[in-house]
């Protein structure tokens, strides 16, 4: 049985190899590319039959046979006519992290190394329009191009630690697009960023150790008490440590607002209570400024009365509409409103008997001058959809409010100037009192 099986296998392999050679030499035959199947049956009926299938080699099936002794690598592939196509090599995707993690050496990778990490991306990148040759690169946040650190004079340590936002020279405009750097640690010689860019444990130092070192250096620069010859004039280490220890309960140190003390009761109603506080020029300035502020205050009072008169005119129009004398499209402009926004004319009307009666009763009644028409509508514009007075209430009210705002701003400016002058005069007077300087005039 074993001998029969061996003979059958050898015979089937011979037949298969012969058929494979004939199929290959046929080249373009109908069955040249098909698989080779041969079956061998044992002559004895009592034995089982065996079938064998020999599949062609994928490499040999895709390549045509060559009778030349050249190797398969030197053989030219057979191209089908009309089926050739050009496929562009896709640009490899790059990320900012991969660029920063790339090698910083200037040399190229070894040509014998076939790993993917040593492949060079031809780019172009950077100002030099060169490739990514594994030198350290940084990405521009404006144009998203990559730049060699050597080409823009930025080393790897500076770029990875202290650059918060990088903008290349091509995109830098000095206004919106520019490179932002982080603040370095306050300890001399440290190039690490300060802890100012996080919400927790903010500090001008990069770590607590550098903070302690800075304070130790500061205290060490002060003289000791034994080495100090003038203990009252020179700040010693002991004095400095005492000052630092006393700020915990007092809430810290700050610059005082009153460098020469504070003399209480120096001013009364804007005027000094002691002589020699103000000069003659300063007194004249304060008096003139106070008079101007008073005049501005009177103007604001007049503007308030103008707004009251506008409200009364609007109420009179509404009363005429409710009485059926006017419709909603009627103008209702009262001709006495011509004095609105004209201070002198309005002041003259307010001082007239009609104006005094109006502000006494708090109502804009019928004009005292004789005329035709109903009492509710006399002295008003009775046109419908009047273009000359269109939106008269809103326009006049807005104009008066703007005048009030401008006048109040001018008055506040004068008051601020007066306050500055008083503070300067008070500081000068207090300094003279503390210094106790005097000049003796000799005849």
Task: List the keywords.
single chain; 443 residues; mainly alpha; Herpes Virus-1; two-stranded antiparallel sheet; 10 strands; 39% helix; flat; zinc
Structure description:
This protein has 443 residues and is mostly helical. Among the domains are: 2-58, no CATH class; 119-181, Herpes Virus-1, CATH 3.30.40; 282-423, no CATH class. 39% of the residues lie in helices and 7% in strands. The protein is built from ten helices and ten strands. The protein has helices at 2-26, 58-62, 96-100, 156-161, 208-220, 237-250, 280-322, 343-351, 353-361, 392-435; strands at residues 36-40, 50-54, 121-125, 130-132, 137-139, 146-148, 163-165, 180-181, 267-268, 271-272. The strands form five sheets. A two-stranded antiparallel sheet has the order 1-2. A hairpin with a 6-residue loop joins strand 5 (137-139) and strand 6 (146-148). 9% of the residues are buried. Residues 1-55 and 58-117 have low confidence and may be disordered. One of its GO terms (cellular component) is Set1C/COMPASS complex. One of its GO terms (molecular function) is zinc ion binding. This is PHD-type domain-containing protein.
